[in-house]
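Sanity check

After download, print the first record. It should look like this:
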Amino acid sequence: MLYYLNNFFIFSIFGYIFETTMFALIGLHNKSGFLYLPWTPFYGTGIIIINLLRDYVSKLDISNTKKHVILAISLFFILSLLEWLGGTILTYLHGYPLWSYEVVPLHIGRYISIPTSILWVIMSYLYLFLVKGLVDKIIKKIPKFITIIFSLVFFVDFILTMIKLFGIMVSY
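Expected structure tokens:
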């Protein structure tokens, strides 16, 4: 459990940095993520999905080639679904879309495009073969209390964001 939580936090923060950098490079002034603190939980969720899918597919009693085909196709569809859910949820929460692939060739609605979904699969494989080993070594060194602190901070950030977005009044 701690392994997945630490992956979630590392890649939620990495996702925030990645998006912020991309926005800066293309000249957009969009804010990455929707929480107060600098993390984008959809990336953290994506990493958990990638790890779980890889673990599941690696246990199948089939050839490695078939495992990679199944993994790539599964990643394509499941990460596309995650992106669609993220776009839909964030549009609902904010009242306007935070991104749109409608200008990207082969887009499927506002939040999915085939080229972007292929890019997510490529990035998933880069993670699995180039980054995962290093991240796993880092995660092994993270003390349990740090994970607990991050979990509490994330929970408070999420609650405060929901209070702000839904205008919930807190009274004593």
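If your output differs, re-run the checksum step. Summary of this record's structure: Strands lie at 107-108, 112-113.
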